[in-house]
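Renewal narrative, Specific Aim 1. Our central claim is that a sequence can be written position by position from structural information alone. The example that follows is taken directly from our test logs and has not been curated for this report. It begins with the structure tokens describing the chain, in the order in which they were read.
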């Protein structure tokens, strides 16, 4: 990440191509750079114009990546150049190119945005973050049933959960009400970026199951956060003695599971909930 300030005097060239934005001028320079720091420079690919980069508001003390995430553009890497003084795009380009030609010609970036406020200019070059693994997940019901399949495969064999030994257990049945209770809690955790068996409304798994219409005699819940697939979530539960014991408990007959992500934020994290039950 780079923050740079350059003071420049306004220039008044006779031929101003005012239809060209600063980002356009930077791409034209990348296509035919001539030289950089006194040495011949080779052309590089143009940068994609990205409006979100132009909208970034970089407050004092804020990391550039944080500002870009707030603008809806998560990045793997980014650099910013700040220029004070030029009154048009060509003057701004002259000030930037004379000092930051290496940055402008970097092949580490694929996108650009340029914003202006009076005589203040901000150029942001960025490489977007790769797609979140959450974007590759199936729908929550399909993922929940994949968890059920993995759980039943685990229950089919004897297993040690820490110091507890468990014999093979009967397969669990999918229950739509427990799945709804699991989804409600995953959504609650994702929305509030919390990780707890107690929801923000104070309810716990038994309350959520009853609200979903499941009258239970025995109830249990596993939660997880950060795993990118149903298989990873189940593997994590199996490696934890308490979660594993829930999963292998012969007293449970039904199960529902779901995941949720907070789509309002750029950096997504997956929240998983698995609810076990035995009805009255």
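The sequence written for that structure reads:
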């Amino acid at each position: 990440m780079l923050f740079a300030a350059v003071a420049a005097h306004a220039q008044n060239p006779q031929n101003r191509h005012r239809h060209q934005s600063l980002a356009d001028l930077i791409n034209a320079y990348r296509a035919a750079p001539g030289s950089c720091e006194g040495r011949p420079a080779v052309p590089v690919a143009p940068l994609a114009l990205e409006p979100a980069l132009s909208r970034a508001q970089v407050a004092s003390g804020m990391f550039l990546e944080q500002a870009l995430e707030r603008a809806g553009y998560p990045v793997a890497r980014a650099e910013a150049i700040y220029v004070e003084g030029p009154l048009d795009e060509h003057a701004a380009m002259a000030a930037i190119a004379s000092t930051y030609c290496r940055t402008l010609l970097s092949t580490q970036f694929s996108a650009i945005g340029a914003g202006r406020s009076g005589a203040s200019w901000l150029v942001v070059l960025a490489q977007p973050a790769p797609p979140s693994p959450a974007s590759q997940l199936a729908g929550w019901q399909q993922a929940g049933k994949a968890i059920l399949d993995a759980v039943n495969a685990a229950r089919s064999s004897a297993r040690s959960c820490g110091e507890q030994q468990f014999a093979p257990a009967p397969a669990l049945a999918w229950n739509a009400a427990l799945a709804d209770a699991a989804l409600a809690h995953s959504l609650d955790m994702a929305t509030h970026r919390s990780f707890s068996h107690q929801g923000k409304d104070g309810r716990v798994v038994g309350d959520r199951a009853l609200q979903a219409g499941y009258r239970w005699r025995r109830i249990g819940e596993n939660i997880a956060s950060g795993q990118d697939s149903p298989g990873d979530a189940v593997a994590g539960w199996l490696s934890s003695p308490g979660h594993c014991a829930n999963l292998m408990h012969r007293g449970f007959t039904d199960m529902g599971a779901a995941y949720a992500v907070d789509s309002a934020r750029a950096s997504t994290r997956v929240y998983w909930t698995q609810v076990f039950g035995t009805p009255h």
